[in-house]
Write a structure and sequence with these properties.
By secondary structure, this protein is an alpha/beta fold. It contains eight helices and six strands; from the N terminus they run ααβαβαβαααβββα. It has a six-stranded mixed sheet with strand order 3-2-1-4-6-5. Strand 1, helix 3 and strand 2 form a beta-alpha-beta unit. The radius of gyration is 17 Å and the shape is globular.
Length: 185
């Protein structure tokens, strides 16, 4: 079944129903989740950790996160026994800034490419299914986000990119953080 057909099948399903359909009888060993530890990510992670207890949780450690983000990440990793994988760029912040200057100010696109995109694409190589907390409502560029899309890595490998909350509103996210008793930043 191709990604468009799968997306059509899961579009009207709840996150739990969509996840069950997507994983079927699989154990989820070829799935991962990218997580910035924002509210929507925590809701998805709560669904995932119950279905796939050891799901790799990929955190893009750009070196520019606030101390509170790291503290929250570490606390939740301990409390939820997460399989946390810190995805780091090739260069440290000091090395990059020494060589290229402060890119997040002078060239944010290049900074994002070096500190987020390239490390993420490399980290996704072992997986066949990639869960995200992305939602259509988050930005104009995400308004056409599908719940299931085929994503091609730079190597040519294809995997399913799954955004379980694609059709959720901000109000639904906050409702679920309360209902699931999820602490947030």
């Amino acid at each position: 079944m191709d990604a468009a057909t799968i997306d059509h099948r899961v579009e009207g399903l709840s996150p739990a129903e969509a996840m069950s359909f997507l994983l079927g009888e699989q154990d989820g060993s070829k799935a991962c989740f990218t997580c910035s530890f924002q509210a929507e990510d925590m809701v998805v992670l709560d669904f995932l950790r119950k279905k796939i207890p050891g799901v790799p949780v990929l955190f893009l450690d750009t070196g520019y996160h606030f101390a509170k983000t790291y503290e929250y990440r570490d606390r939740m990793a301990r409390e939820w026994s997460l399989n946390l994988v810190n995805v780091i760029p090739k260069r440290t912040v000091a090395e990059q800034e020494g060589e290229l200057g402060i890119l997040y100010r002078s060239n944010p696109t290049q900074c994002c490419q070096l500190r987020k995109v390239e490390p993420l694409m490399a980290a996704l190589e072992p997986y066949d299914m990639w869960f995200t907390g992305l939602r259509r409502e988050q930005s104009p560029t995400r308004k056409n986000l599908k719940k299931v899309e085929e994503h091609t890595l730079p190597s040519g490998k294809k995997l399913l990119k799954v955004s379980l909350l694609a059709d959720w509103t901000w109000a639904q996210v906050w409702e679920q953080t309360g209902a699931r008793k999820i602490e947030y930043l």
